[in-house]
């Protein structure tokens, strides 16, 4: 082994026993000589795997059986494959737990369930009252006793029917349940969550497109995408000046013509938005079969839900084209998830970068498990995803205790927040306002607050968390 990497056996022995550092030069020789994946010898992958295992055992489920840090570190080092299998199993359990909580939340907040529960209690009270009358009054006449007994039988039959209807509702078999089913948007959000916001087939398609484009640098991506649209798909790209804005039929952009045609983009759009629009059009035209392939494996109930899902998949593809998986993931760890630096390096928007960070779920090449939320000023949630384990409300508005709405008080600035969830897990997040441009020049755009966060054990990978004392999170318990 020493001969293969051109060092003495004595020096190799010292390196093996951690008495000499593993220099970058020696690391390179080992990687080349023994076909070792780049970065594996530095311990970076092991450290990230250990962080994920620490997250697993921080769950209250393991409160009485949490392993010692040294033992866990040795286990991860010696059994990385078993550790990954445990993480996969834990994530499946966490998803199942999340589904149970969602179902409970959905049922308990449903007006039909509330109304039926009240009727059940009323019915039971009535039956008990008549039963007590029969039990406590021995002097009732035969006629009175028969009348009360008949009432009890009738009320019991009504109760049986009511309980049956309630069980049908809970099982999703009643008319009421059908009328109160999820919206198309909820279906798409659940589909994305079920796939952990990661679609290998779309990642491969995005890599294929970039290779066809000649692996352009971020600053050259606009020209590369425009040329591909023109030369390969027969779609001419026209950047419309503000003076001609009124000719655009769909506000900021439009695609005119069925076969080929012209993609017209408003010049007031940011470069990141221009690139995103072009990449999504390429997805919908040149990679329509790939999108349909993903869609064919997704059970959706309506045409509207399928259209929304296709749009979401096209947007995923566009993000993967702008921020290639491996390069973006490496940069994310290198820059310690500094969103502004990542945004500049990949010529992307703040929200685009945050959203892309949630998609780094490739097995053995995962990123930090983040959660992502987007809300308006009223706290209405328009986007949500959680790989961090934090349970994001499915209905209603987001509580101010989460700190996301604080971003509206300091527009354009990054706000820091930590909170402790109901299960006592501590989370760190950042939030910032983003504004979508108005359709017309001078028209105010829509402003949202975007939040990106992770469980505290992963916060060391995030530059914004430096100096934060997680022993004293500044937020109250969620739900109180």
Automatic annotation (TrEMBL):
UniProt cross-references to CDD domains, sorted A to Z: HisKA (cd00082), HTH_XRE (cd00093)
MF terms (GO), sorted A to Z: phosphorelay sensor kinase activity
Enzyme category, top tier: transferase
EC number, UniProt record: 2.7.13.3
InterPro entries noted in UniProt: Cro/C1-type_HTH, HisK_dim/P_dom, HisK_dim/P_sf, IrrE_HExxH, ScfR_C
Gene3D superfamilies associated with the record: 1.10.287.130
A UniProt-annotated Pfam family: Peptidase_M78
Positions of the HTH cro/C1-type domain: 1-41
Protein name: histidine kinase
